[in-house]
Here is the input.
Amino acid sequence: MATDGLMAIRYLISAEESRIGRTDYWNSVFLAGRTPFDRTCLALLKVLVIITLSVFMVMALSQL
Here is the structure.
């Protein structure tokens, strides 16, 4: 289970996107074994992490 948790963290901070005609690891392997509810929760959590990191970066830059 520790590996599954680590993969979830890697998914949250990854910037890999799917492109037409290409499969990426996250959509074809990692998310394929999840339920639709789990996929939705992970996607929403990923958006929340990105927004939080962006806010912290803006706050840090404003302190310079």
Summary: Residues 2-62 form one domain. The chain has a mean pLDDT of 82. The radius of gyration is 14 Å. The CA atoms of residues 27 and 44 lie 15 Å apart.
